[in-house]
Structures
1.
Amino acid sequence: MSESTTIPSAAALVRTDTVVIGAGQAGLAAAYYLRQNRVDFRLLDAAPAAGAAWAARYDSLRLFSPAWASGLPGRPWPGNPLHYPTRDETTAYLRDYAAHFSFPFEPNRRVTRLAAAPDQPGYLVQTAEGPTYAARRVLVATGPFTTPRVPAWAPELPAAVAQLHSRFYQRPAQLPGPGPVAVVGSGNSALQIAADVAATGRPVFVAFDETTPALPNNQPMWAFLVLAGLLRASRHSPLGRTLFGRPEPVVSGDLAQLRRFANALFIGRATAALPNGAIQGTRATTPPLATVVWATGYQPDYRWIDLPILGADGHPRHHRGLTAAPGVAFLGLDWLNSRRSALLNGAGPDARRVVAELLKMP
């Protein structure tokens, strides 16, 4: 433990059975099952409303799963089940979900420390400007999208090149100047953002790894994935281990749409920055750029967790969400248990299982 833990005065301490940290889809699903089991709990989030991570994403975002495969437990998506919801529809759904079930949601509660309570079982959850919570159980549901990650060579680009991570990208008008833009990344967000910018007519250089697999994103494919059990195969099963070792596919339709833009040029996987402000790819090199959008993923930032449940790389150490700290678990991480763990589709099943395991504690 990095520093001694003291219990605040009674006036500044809120006692509850369970604290859920994060009010995105994973935290809301956990809240549903805690309510079903009549557990006294608090749902905390640093933002002023539930689903805030979705509200901050880019304007043109759409879910990669249809509404029928994206709902949380106890409340299906409204409207056409075959529809692929937009960013704003997803945000509205999550906020409606929290309000519908009247969860004990406490917004504007940024957690600054999670530590073992001194001289008694349980944990203390300290917040920046609110109370400290004493709880027997803690569910960390802050999700995988915490700290943006960029290549180690990104700082080698000259200052004249504007750099923006996809976490902060919302629309093409944010990008300065009329000059060429590079979008770096080999995931679905990179394809959607590149198409978003290409639609304005600006030259877009797409640093995309051509070996990335692509799959259709249609109703038959989703029916097959669900019925065949590919999304729910645990990473600890033979099938799950095979799937876990493969690169994440992108949507073939999004890739095809981007290739139709004459002003979108694919340069292969990005490998280096050049002194003139260009990016070198495995297939081609860009001209000097005005802007680079890094759609290169995230890395964890759990420095506020003062428990021996993190690896040397900062990633949580867990088995299907459960940690070595009795009563502490994670939800909403990539491959927490299966491919769907970080998706809306998987929030409910993971939450049901993890909550049930935590409630077995004496």
2.
Amino acid sequence: MKTYPKFKAAACHVAPVYFDTPATIDKACAWIAEAAANGASLVAFPESFVSAFPVWCGVWAPVDTHEFFVKLASSTVLVNGPEIDRLRAEAKKHGVFVSIGINEGTPNSFGCIYDTNLLIGDDGSILNRHRKLVPTYWEKLVWANGDGSGLRVVDTRIGHIGALVCGENTNALARYSLLAQGENVHISSFSPRWPTHPPGEAAYDLEASIKLRAGAHAFEGKLFNIVASGFLPPEAIDMISRGDPRPRRLMEEASKSVSMILGPDGVPISPILRDEEGIVYADIDLERCVIPKQFQDVVGYYNRFDIFDVNVNRRAQSPARFSDQDSTEPYGEPGWSGAPQATSSSAEV
């Protein structure tokens, strides 16, 4: 008889130490330990948590942001680098799964940065790397396009886990590609704030959009959605504004992001964090995903596969392919296949 996992999830509403990767990794390890001590089996961190979200692109003209781009590029990490090794060791030490947003660098270029989400297994293995498919609006000034190699759902002891980054949770085809792999635990990572209009004008309501998107995916997929959003601390506002009142006002007036956990009916089952750093917890029982599938199962009986034909290209993209290149190294550049590393806690989709 089939059984359904039960576990506690933790969503971290937290700020990085801007451009200080070692200090941010220290903070991440401390929060992983705290969440694990409180019984969490899955700990989720925000978008680009290591080590900055590029909010400066929304409040300064591009010609005024070179300083910040250099700092961001200098603080990037590699998936197989020592900073991620520390996170992997911390996950293994506490026996927890960790989802975390990073600014991922690449040996191909000092100036190429990806908005990447990593899923780390409870044994310390890298289960998946997903690079945001398309940076949103002014994010294109710092991040490169990702590819489909990370559009994967990983089969673990606590469920079938998938993840999308920020605005990707609006992309119906990206979401469907995960649902079609049996996703029942979704992780949504978001930015801390997202300025869109001049001061004083009605602007993008980040909190409302997160609640709408997260609830829609949970309801459509009949799954649990862990939402981990960033927090913008006063010291980051000070640094980015450079003493100019206009960018300060833009950041201070922009709506704040929220962190929460939602059930298969699209309704929050945890507190909602907005105004301060913290961790929200919720108990997950995957049996709750079953009965709603009787009503509407968009990857089962409630669809017409004879009418709709969805094809997803999961080949990893690279700037060049060399005939003598050894492509066997996991997460190598550019030969990584995109498939998760085989581990006791994951299964290749």
